[in-house]
Write a structure and sequence with these properties.
By secondary structure, the chain is α/β, with parallel strands linked by helices. It has helices at residues 11-15, 24-37, 43-50, 70-83, 104-113, 117-124, 135-147, 151-159, 174-178, 201-215, 231-240, 282-290; strands at residues 4-6, 21-23, 39-40, 60-61, 64-67, 87-91, 183-187, 218-223, 244-246, 275-276, 279-280.
């Protein structure tokens, strides 16, 4: 699972959330590793397997991207094309019609990175906090609260925290989406708010499904935004029309059997776990990927 791919020398990379950003060179090295050690499949292969109409090759691997960043088209796609590798983009459909250059969730991440701002946001938004709440649950509630604002109010709210302005549009437009080659598009919610924090997750899922159908995308496939899922959300996803669902559990799927649960995905970072002096370290990346537990 990948999110952003950017030139190492760019201002965008310097400002990106590093856990979810790859340099273009590092991404290319990672793809070379994947190409060597996996039989890369496309979403059609996986759907055929799920329908019991055919098996998957040994060491099958599916390359996925989340959210809908422009750099998926600008920098990730050319690296995929060089190697003839297919991929899937799980798209938060609301980004296509976003009027702002900067995605509001990226601005919120910037705010949350500063010490004390988590508590400051909770206080400003009047969000109650329990001693049992972990940081992730608290961020989910903040995201849901900010995501529920009207666009103008949300823009003003985020600007009041002195966030930087984007230089150019961050997220894909409808026209750019049509130009994706080798990358199939599936769902990632509409608002990209954690579905477990929404009062009406079904409405968000249905909006995503409708837009995916209009786009001619894979409207029966999705991954859960932020990896946030419960059994109730899973039921709503199927009700909205998503027959195949991915989560963010870093597990290995057994391709010899038919799956009855969500499909796990392994997030790959470009950091000390996967790199050495020359960039991506094959031994480190192998350790990071190959020794994951199997899905329950």
């Amino acid at each position: 699972m990948f999110h952003r791919v950017l030139p190492a020398e760019s201002d965008d990379y310097a400002c990106a959330e590093r856990e979810y950003a790859f340099t273009r060179g590092g991404f290319g090295q990672c793809l070379d590793f994947i190409h060597k050690h996996y039989n890369v499949i496309d979403l059609g292969d996986l759907k055929t397997h799920a329908e019991s109409k055919g098996g998957l090759p040994d060491r099958a691997g599916l390359i996925t991207f989340d959210d809908g960043w422009r750099d998926t088209a600008l920098y990730a796609q050319p690296e995929l094309e060089k190697r003839g590798l297919p991929a899937v983009l799980f798209l938060a459909t609301s980004v296509l019609d976003d009027e702002d250059d900067r995605w509001w969730q990226d601005a919120l991440v910037e705010i949350l990175l500063s010490p004390g701002n988590l508590e400051g946001l909770e206080s400003t938004l009047n969000i109650p906090v329990s001693e049992k709440d972990n940081r992730r649950a608290r961020i989910y509630r903040i995201t849901a609260s900010v995501g529920g604002m009207a666009k103008d109010a949300r823009r003003s709210f985020l600007q009041s925290w002195n966030v930087r302005a984007a230089v150019g549009r961050q997220m894909l437009s409808r026209g750019e989406l049509r130009n994706l080659a080798l990358i199939k598009v599936a769902g990632h919610g509409h608002s990209h708010v954690p579905l477990t924090s929404l009062q009406d997750p079904l409405a968000d899922l249905q909006q995503s499904h409708v837009l995916l159908e209009e786009l001619g995308a894979e409207a029966d496939v999705m991954s859960f935004p932020h990896g946030a899922v419960s059994e109730a959300v899973r039921v709503q996803a199927h009700r909205a029309g998503f027959a195949m669902c991915f989560n963010s559990e870093p597990v290995l799927m057994d391709t010899r059997v038919q799956w009855t649960s969500d499909i796990g995905r392994i997030h790959i970072p470009e950091n000390e776990w996967t790199t050495g002096p020359a960039g991506i370290d094959p031994a480190k990346l192998a350790t990071f990927l190959f020794f994951r537990p199997g899905a329950a």
